[in-house]
Design goal:
Length: 208
C-alpha cells in the first residue's frame, strides 16, 4: 500500500496503526473473547466512533493488513512486467505473503485465529473476497484469453495455496509444490492456436 504523504493522511494512518497494535496486544494478553471494542478504544485513547471509522468490526482489528494484502495480490497481476507470465508473478507474491505470515512472531496470532470460530469465519470470508478481486484482475488483463471460470478457479487456487502452505512444516516448499500444480492447471486452460472456439491472439497492450 502506498505510504500516506499528507499530514492528515499520516496522522490517520498512525491512529489506525495505534488502534490495531493496541487491539492485538489486548487480545493476546487477555484472550480475543474477553476483550471488547470499548476496551480497545479506551486503551488506545480514542472514541469508539473513531475506532469504527478505521475498522468495520472487531474481527477486522486482527486482520488489519487485509486491504494491503488484497492490493498486493491484484498488483502482482496488473503491475507485472509486460512480458512476465502470470503464474510466476503470483507465485512470487504468495511466497512473500507466506514468509510474512509464518514468521515466528505470527505464531500466537494464528493460534488465536485458529481457536476462534468468529475469526476463522472472518478469515474465510476475507479469502473469498481476495480471490474474487484477484480473479477480476486476471480476467480483465488484455494479455490473457482464459475464460472467466478459469480465472476464478486459478485465483481460488492461489489464495488457497497461502492457507495450505502456512499449515505445513515447510511453507515455502509447500508453495512451490502447489504452484507447480497451479501452473499446469493454468496451461491446460490455454487453448491451442487455431483450435475451434479459440479467441484471436491479443496484442500486448498493458502500459507498463
Amino acid at each position: 500500500m502506498t505510504a500516506p504523504t499528507g499530514r492528515r493522511e499520516r496522522k490517520k494512518a498512525a491512529t489506525r496503526q495505534k488502534i490495531a497494535d493496541t487491539a492485538l496486544r489486548l487480545f493476546l494478553e487477555h484472550g480475543y473473547d474477553a476483550v471488547g471494542i470499548r476496551d480497545v478504544a479506551a486503551e488506545a485513547d480514542v472514541a469508539v466512533t473513531t475506532l469504527f471509522s478505521h475498522f468495520a468490526s472487531k474481527e477486522a482489528l486482527v486482520f488489519e493488513l487485509d486491504e494491503n494484502f488484497e492490493q498486493r495480490l491484484t498488483q502482482a497481476v496488473t503491475g507485472r512486467a509486460p512480458d512476465e507470465p502470470l503464474i510466476p508473478a503470483l507465485h512470487r507474491e504468495i511466497q512473500a505473503l507466506v514468509r510474512h505470515c509464518t514468521a515466528d512472531s505470527a505464531a500466537p496470532i494464528w493460534h488465536m485465529i485458529d481457536t476462534s470460530p468468529a475469526l476463522r469465519e472472518y478469515e474465510e470470508s476475507m479469502r473469498l473476497r481476495h480471490a474474487e478481486s484477484l480473479a477480476t484482475a486476471i480476467a480483465t488483463d488484455p494479455d490473457l484469453t482464459q475464460t472467466t471460470t478459469a480465472c476464478r478457479a486459478i485465483a481460488r487456487f492461489a489464495i488457497d495455496a497461502f492457507s495450505l502452505a502456512r499449515e505445513t512444516a515447510d511453507p515455502q516448499a509447500a508453495v512451490d509444490e502447489i504452484f507447480h500444480m497451479i501452473e499446469a492447471a493454468w496451461e491446460a486452460t490455454n487453448p491451442s492456436p487455431g483450435a475451434p472456439g479459440t479467441p484471436p491472439t491479443r496484442t500486448k497492450t498493458r502500459g507498463r
